[in-house]
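Reagents: none. Just compute today. PXPV repeat-containing protein.
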Amino acid sequence: MNKSMTISAGVLAAAVLMFSAAPAMARVDVGVNIGIPGPVYYAPEPVYVQPQPVYVQPRPVYYAPQPYYGDRHYHKHHRHYRHDNDRDGVPDRYDRRPNNPYRY
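Predicted 3D structure written out:
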């Protein structure tokens, strides 16, 4: 029994090794070319393409409108002494009071 067990273990080990090596086997192709040799492919020469020049569009220019100061000599409704018409330094509302020293 010991002998048959050793043989069966050996056969089993051989089968395991054979089947585990089966996916690792490489396929060997042998090709024979008769006549004209195949085309030779060369790597193309490197091509340098110059980039486009960088163009930055200038920012728009804004001008402030001219300030309007009005007519310098227009004083139709402007009264300098609106509150003191007689120019005595006392406002008009106090001119007629009896204790005003500048009354007369």
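The chain has a mean pLDDT of 77.
Action item: order primers for follow-up constructs.
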